[in-house]
């Protein structure tokens, strides 16, 4: 596995080694020992999630506040998405900035989204299957979101806004300036 820090160094791209031949391929999609050695701290994933969506579905920007803050390790099993992580640690030198990475069944790329970041993705192909690990269970009382089209963040989702399909919840998320946020320097990992 190759680990690459992005322009926001806490967000990491993971490129697994794919072993392929005429029969198909084999790939290790997760190695806790390698991930923790790269990160320098422990992450205990406790739940795997999967969603299937059509082209234009936008899910996000989502996060959970402490004590239920979540780390996410995301990937695409089938299809293609533009995956986005936004720094929402107030006071951070990269506060309000984002990383956008295309994840697909072809590139097998993954994105590590740490606590203190909002996460979302837009589906670029029909019948896309998206999978992710989290290190805390869903907590409705700590569940939060930010408007996907917040002009202060300025995410280019790569599709026309009129073609996007959002849940009612995601249509009503607050702007970054009105959202409940993390504090930069807040201890988010043990």
Question: Care to give the gist of this entry?
Answer:
With 190 residues, the chain is mainly beta. It contains 2 helices and 15 strands. The protein has helices spanning 32-39, 168-171; strands spanning 2-5, 12-15, 18-21, 24-27, 47-53, 58-64, 72-78, 80-87, 89-90, 98-104, 110-113, 117-123, 128-134, 143-145, 182-183.
Describe this structure in words.
There is one protein chain. By secondary structure, this protein is mainly β. It has one domain (45-183): Jelly Rolls (Sandwich), CATH 2.60.120.10. Helix content is 6%, strand content 41%. It is built from two helices and 15 strands. The strands form four sheets. A six-stranded antiparallel beta sheet has the order 1-2-11-7-13-5, with no helix packed on it. Strand 3 and strand 4 (24-27) form a beta hairpin. The mean pLDDT is 97.
Which word captures the global form? globular
Query: What is the level 1 CATH name?
Result: Mainly Beta
- What are the low-pLDDT stretches, counting only 5+ consecutive residues below 50? none
Instruction: Provide mean pLDDT, rounded.
Output: 97
Which percent bin holds the helix content?
Answer: under 10%
Radius of gyration: 16 Å
Q: How many distinct folded domains? A: 1
Throw out a few tags for this protein.
mainly beta; 190 residues; 6% helix; Jelly Rolls; six-stranded antiparallel beta sheet; 15 strands; globular
Secondary structure topology:
Elements (H helix, E strand, L loop, with lengths): L1 E4 L6 E4 L2 E4 L2 E4 L4 H8 L7 E7 L4 E7 L7 E7 L1 E8 L1 E2 L7 E7 L5 E4 L3 E7 L4 E7 L8 E3 L22 H4 L10 E2 L7
Parallel strand pairs: 9-15
Antiparallel strand pairs: 1-2, 2-11, 3-4, 5-13, 6-12, 6-14, 7-11, 7-13, 8-10, 8-12
